[in-house]
Amino acid sequence: xxxxxxxxxxxVCLVSLTPGCYTTVEGHKKAGxxxxxxxIESRYERKPAEVFAAAKVVLAQMGTxxxxxxxxxxxxxKVDNNTVWVKVAEVEPGISQxxxxxxxxxxxxxxxxxxxxxxxxxxxxxxx
Length: 128
Description:
Helix content: 25-40%
Oligomer: single chain
């Protein structure tokens, strides 16, 4: 009886501590903790090209821009051992939606960094 209980307890602990997969804003699947909040969504009354340019400036200021996909309107950057993705899409004419996702090198989500990047994008758009 005790062996079964400890075996079940060990199995539950192993499953809860094992990383799974999460989806990036680009649509790729990566290994990591899937149940952590790592994404912020915002809408701006600007054209997607303006928001994309502002996001590119912000990511270049905060870290190193490592990827840019102009067709899918996504950016990828490294900021303080974190990976940050930004996706821009037009939801209505003149209104853009931005998804900012940040992940630590330990595969956990970093919603604080995602919100900081989102805030800086808003400030960059206001300055233009």
